[in-house]
Amino acid sequence: MAIKQLTVFVPNRKGTIVSVTDILAKNNINIRALSIAETEDFGILRLIVNDEMAAEKVLEEQGYLIKVVDVVGVKIGDEPGKLTEALNVLDKADINVEYLYAFMARTEKHAYVVLRVENNEAAETALVNENFKLITEADINKL
What is the pLDDT along the chain (143 residues), one digit of tens a residue? Predict the structure, then answer.
């Protein structure tokens, strides 16, 4: 049930991000979530999009190095402590969270969180067993 995340390696210089977003926009690809981490020389752009295969194709055609990674998406209540509850589930299941980022969905009562963990299947099972709803590719496409 994992969702696909594009990891795009980009040089850390002016105009790089707008170049990526422009390519996606011109190909009718909608960004649903975005995270960027940088070093002095390069950035790591993480994207959840409505059409992962098309995004991968057009970005690779433009010379970008792309890696597709399976991540876990979880829907959590939009109130203090709900993220901690989800993270505690993974901690109790001895699952390491490598990174995470959140994005807003079209609802006032929930937030969507993307988690990169060492074992997607175990994380999904642990979260579902504690009544968390997972996000699917179909959910992403509805946003």
Answer: 789 999 999 988 888 888 999 999 999 999 988 998 877 888 899 999 999 999 999 999 999 999 999 999 998 888 899 999 999 999 999 999 999 988 766 666 666 777 778 898 998 999 999 998 888 888 877 77
Neighbours of 71 (CB within 10 A): 24
Hey, what CATH class is 3-69 in? Answer: alpha beta
Q: Which residues make beta-bridge pairs with 42?
A: 11
- The string of DSSP letters for 34-79 reads EEEEE-SSEEEEEEEES-HHHHHHHHHHTT-EEEEEEEEEEEEESS
Q: Does 71-142 match 3-69 at the fold level?
A: yes
SS3 at position 80: coil
Residue with tokens 């994207």: 47
| CATH classification code of 71-142 | 3.30.2130.10
* Domain boundaries along the sequence of the chain: 3-69, 71-142
Residue whose C-alpha is closest to residue 17's, from 42, 50, 54: 42
CB 41 within 8 A of CB 74: no
